[in-house]
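Sharing a chain and its predicted structure for anyone who wants a worked example. Both blocks are below, sequence first, tokens second.
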Amino acid sequence: MKILIDMNLSPRWVKLFDDAGVESAHWSTIGATNAPDKEIMDYAKANIYCNTISIRRYIMGKELNGLLEEVLNMPQQQRAFLASQLIDSLEPQVDIDIEAAWQQEVNKRVSQAKEGLVTFIPWGEARRRLKGV
């Protein structure tokens, strides 16, 4: 069996499959990274690959796959927002005590900033300092 890994999965999957003795290739090493699913599926069929698009469609069903395709075509900022909302929906119920402690810390820091007790530095400077650590 040969597996063709589509762009929705990391190229790191190739090594995992190779380590398991399964021949695989990532689409990014074969064709255009923005190729439509049909092109990838046609290539897989012509070259006797089982492709992850077909596997994903089988597992997810047509409706969910359509939604995934639509989301993956959104601008990065919208995808990031949606991802954060989905992750938040998976988290257990909010711990009120922890939330209160964080709010207290935020309020303390805002007060310190307003009173001039802290010195701000630009992000570029902070990043430079962190890289030096």
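Comments welcome. The first strand starts at residue 2 and ends at 5.
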